[in-house]
What does this fold into?
Amino acid sequence: KAGVTQTPRYLIKTRGQQVTLSCSPISGHRSVSWYQQTPGQGLQFLFEYFSETQRNKGNFPGRFSGRQFSNSRSEMNVSTLELGDSALYLCASSLGQAGVGSYNEQFFGPGTRLTVL
Amino acid sequence: AQSVTQLGSHVSVSEGALVLLRCNYSSSVPPYLFWYVQYPNQGLQLLLKYTSAATLVKGINGFEAEFKKSETSFHLTKPSAHMSDAAEYFCAVSDHNAGNMLTFGGGTRLMVKP
It folds into this structure.
């Protein structure tokens, strides 16, 4: 079974531009989460989507948004890029949304490395 | 909110030596606990997880971790380090009502000397 795929793997943008990153989950997985990884802040949760609905959101400004399609593929968008948005953006997929007292194992993609100049 | 502390951002061991990477969490209610490994230019790979079953958890590549509620710890160990173990290791937690959201520690970079 193919793993989580993220495109593109590398991206260079300039300040003020916007960017869209894509994540294709493992076949059959319906939940997709996004994380930002930077040397200064480490790994931080951005948001989670399940069945095309945002289920959970981290503490990021509104410039960061996402969506999920009916085939469970997800995109995240960052508008008005800032230098501090340079990071590795990781996507993780799992079978479903975890309920209270349960957990679904997450599988991570290789990430998209975004550089903002 | 949950927090995770990994003591030591860099740990260096000799090949064949014991590996010990420390992780402490903040919750009074034991969460789900995980260790992930990240190799350069790659995503995260799950090493092992604690989900309220056995307190000693065995993972891949010879790693294991012990959940100690009294110490709110989940330290990762491996009896004998191999050169291929050199990577960054992350401890993470998930609250029982947080869905799939993971809170990560700051990471520990493991270096293995020949």
Q: What stands out?
A: Chain A is about 0% helix and 50% strand. Residues 47 and 103 of chain A are 17 Å apart (CA to CA).
